[in-house]
């Protein structure tokens, strides 16, 4: 069995300014390593990204400020399921239903989340549908939240665009190939908080932090606490634990990239187990920035990525794919056309490489607050 490994790539060369920097041998090496990671794993970690430590610390503090509010206060920031904005309480969503796979025990995921994203007004002059560009809700009960989240959002948007440039190079495409598909991109930041209330520990064996899914867009930049829980499905059909290295951001590919590349690059399945260390459930935070592309961009196999007649996916717009999957996770309505990934979830071998599954924990797990 080949060993599972999430490669670490220093993207610093792509952040050097100057007209010729992008054609440097250093950038070529970064692009080569990205291509290899995208073909073999679909996950990588990037260093040299220049997202300021203060922006990351601000984001973490914003999560704490908001999620430590009482549930009733947080619940005031719930939004209609179709908007994909605002607060989602614990056990209100099920990510595996984005693939039409019911969760084990039919219980929703235990994460709570707050989502912000691109608004129509960010792209003046365009007539954009509210369904993909809904206005944000900002929680006035957490006064520091908005400024910190906006700062992180803008930094990570920039890094996503740099990464897409490197990916275009890695795929041998013209510079700017993706520009027309990303100039009014639907981007969203989903901030997740995994914490089980004391009384519900008995259920821990059946609960998922977040069910198995692929991300829906082009690429995801994931910041997470260095706490176990995240697992990635390897090509060996086993779940592998993944934690970010110091200062690194995790990057994974979403459905659009798998469809563009006709599965040459992988939209890798991942999930979050209850974070357990020494029989104790730890609190865990993460923030997934989804760089999704224009709502009306048609996603179909890229030139050079398929032989005629070998296309694995029919064309679909970014918004059609995302809306169907968001409806699945929020309302339990299974999306059409997710059968390839759903089959991979169902084929995954049950035992994980996690040090201790909840049911096998030596002592009864308890929550650390
Ligand atoms: O919490 C994590 O590490 C993963 C979050 C995630 O996969 C998501 O929000 O899509
Ligand atoms: Fe995800």
From TrEMBL:
Q: Does the keyword Oxidoreductase apply?
A: yes
Q: Which InterPro entries match?
A: DIOX_N (IPR026992), IPNS-like_FE2OG_OXY (IPR044861), IPNS-like_sf (IPR027443), Iron_ascorbate_oxido_reductase (IPR050231), Oxoglu/Fe-dep_dioxygenase_dom (IPR005123)
Q: What superkingdom does the record give?
A: Bacteria
Bias class Low complexity marks the residues at: 347-363
Organism, scientific name: Streptomyces boetiae
Tell me the ranges covered by the Fe2OG dioxygenase domain, including all copies.
185-293
Q: What is this protein called?
A: 2-oxoglutarate and iron-dependent oxygenase domain-containing protein
What ranges does the record give for the region Disordered, renumbered to this chain?
345-369
